[in-house]
TrEMBL record:
Cofactor or coenzyme needed: FMN
Flavin reductase like domain residues: 9-164
UniProt keyword annotation of Flavoprotein present: yes
Entry keyword annotation includes Flavoprotein: yes
Molecular functions (GO terms): FMN binding; oxidoreductase activity, acting on the CH-NH group of donors, NAD or NADP as acceptor
InterPro entries noted in UniProt: Flavin_Rdtase-like_dom, Flavoredoxin, Split_barrel_FMN-bd
Species of provenance: Desulfonatronum thiosulfatophilum
Protein known as: NADH-FMN oxidoreductase RutF, flavin reductase (DIM6/NTAB) family
Family of this protein: Belongs to the flavoredoxin family.
Domain of life: Bacteria
Amino acid sequence: MKKSLGAKTLVFPTPVWVVGSYDQEGKPNIMTIAWGGICCSKPPCLNISLRKATYTYECITMSRSFTVNVATENNIIMADYCGTASGRTVNKFAATGLTPVRSELVDAPYIEEFPLIAECRLLQTVDLGLHTMFIGEILDIKADAAVLMEEGLPDVEKLRPAVFGPVVRTYHGLGEYLGPAFTIGQEIERPKDELPKREH
């Protein structure tokens, strides 16, 4: 029997994304967020949710651009720092030794040392309550060659992204490979004329 835990943000896991933006003076800023995900296939879009009190909220509202830098097991300490310090008072690039790179596609910086990044143009803003959701169209994905498969796509096991446990406040690496998506479920019997359906 399941125990009720109440209305909490206890859906595991969430991503550890470091969001890049520029402030009004053109200073590069980064902030770690955990409320985000892919939200559309065509056009390719992702969403991030921020509190209005954050400096990054101001920056994205002004520039209408941002980058998402995927935190990995190797840089989780820097990612954690970027989620606890404020860009209003600290230059987080200088503090962490990370390198800002100006995007050629959007008005936002990305992090040179992070192996997988998304460059996004702000499409829509939705006020949800404490958090505001920014929906960004993905204009490009950039990846280090070291985390790519032979097919040219990112390899999750090479990337080793970090994930976050909301409420309990813990970071984790990903577990073992379980099998190919849209394939392993075909072991369950179904009518012969029914084809597997994708849920996205």
